[in-house]
Amino acid sequence: MLNINNGAAQLKREILVRIAKLQLEGKLEEGVHYIPREMAPLNADPFRCCVYHDREVLRMRVIARLGHSVEDYDDEKKLAEYARDALNRDRPTEPMLTVLDEACNACVRSHYMVTNACQACVARPCVMNCPKKCIEIKNGRAVIDAEACINCGICKQNCPYHAIIKIPVPCEEACPVGAISKDENGKERIDYSKCTFCGACMRECPFGAMMDKGQLVDVIKNLMEGKKVVAMYAPAIAAQFRAAPGQLEGALKSAGFYKTFEVAVGADITADKEAHEFEERMDRGDVVMTTSCCPAYVRAVHLHAPELIPCVSETRSPMHYTAEIARKEDASYVTVFIGPCLAKRKEGLDDPYVDYVLSAEELGALFVAKGIDVGTSESLVCETQPTGSARNFAQSGGVAEAVRIRVKDTERLRPYVINGLDAAGMKQLKAFGKAAADKKPAEGNLVEVMACPGGCIAGPSVITNLKVAGVQLKKYVETAGV
Fold first, then answer.
1. Is the pLDDT at 472 greater than 80, yes or no?
2. What CATH number was assigned to the domain covering residues 111-167?
3. Ordered alpha helix ranges (H), 330-371
């Protein structure tokens, strides 16, 4: 997994900060044109062939961060016009992902390569075990016939010197459902009829060619217009900042939000309802029930494992219940969910109670643009306090545990956690679906599924590494109730 601290991520975050600063100063339309020039000055060493190519790619990144699809790119259209369109739109547009052709490296297809570590050993397990007999020894080194190779990886598995490596296409490799492939020009394309919006491609592309379309401009516009913009932050967001309890709320208030809601309050509602639903399902003879909090997982089921659809909990997500609470309190609230997840943007667009969805990156950029240090912010407390188990929804196993402690008859409960929806995870889903269809006992009957390995604290838009986020989450959980 690509570390969150990398050059591509830093570029995208710097653009967010620059856009936010310009907008807060009321200079977005006039100043956005200069962002590529300032980030790629003439005396800088270029990443690509020249500074002008770097600027063109930066221009596309700015367009994506303004919330536009780069697939609709018009090189005759000025960045000021794109900024004006962003400021004037009523709501964000689908899809949530966009692919920057100019940034895409058009990686060669995934294949295996023999390195200098090859010893042309006597054992020659690569030659002996190749099912297509496409490896031979030439000039003291193993050579793979690329045309005959089927990329099975057996040669790599058998090499005692680890001299054979796999050269992957990171975005294609990361996608668990085969939604990414090359077009006739070798550039990557996303098939949105297959895409689950898990964000794995965006996280793993080392060129930053896969980008989410920003909604920060929309939120700042509402803040500057003096509307009652309320922040609904996911438990995973509390794990992104090193702060004492209540300081994130204080920082959000300083950023201009009218009120703050912990989405963990909605998680308590979800856990209560899922525990009740589980008991009802088992009483009527169901074999499996899966949790429903992860929208990437739910979409994966509907698109790629339809046999499991009847098993997905009908309970809504914590985001939905929190937004419903906010709207019932005041129908004029502009509701903004803040999380580390790309799929939540899709869920937000489909939920009438949710107006906007910000990523952890966007919230971090807003804090930087406003000069807010979360760690020194005033400590405030939300009116409604959630349980610790609800706050623990943010990591793998947390949802299943929250439901478990609420189920009355625990003897018939067999929790099972799928920690990350990779290709192996998709196979597990299909296995549970078959067991349910055949009415046969499965390995577990309450199945929690998280698309991101580690859970929400490892989402595609986080700004803190998993280990640190885990420590912060533990502190956050411990300050809550039972």
1. yes
2. 3.30.70.20
3. 343-350, 360-370
Domain regions of the chain by residue span: 7-106+172-214, 111-167, 219-478
* Per-residue model confidence as pLDDT tens digits over 4-36: 778 888 999 999 999 999 999 999 999 999 999
Q: What is the mean pLDDT of residues 41-64?
A: 91
Q: Which CATH architecture has domain 7-106+172-214?
A: 2-Layer Sandwich (3.30)
- H helices within 170-262, ranges in order? 170-174, 200-204, 216-224, 235-238, 247-254
Angle 316-322-324 (CA atoms, 0-180°, nearest 5)? 80
Virtual torsion, Cα 125, 130, 134, 138, nearest 10 deg: 0
State the alpha helices, DSSP H only, in 239-317: 247-254, 263-283, 295-304
Phi/psi at 299 (nearest 5 deg)?
Answer: -65, -40
Bridge pairing between strands 111-114 and 164-167: antiparallel
CA distance 152 to 348: 40
> Of 48, 90, 95, 55, whose CA–CA distance to 71 is shortest?
95
Global pTM value: 0.91
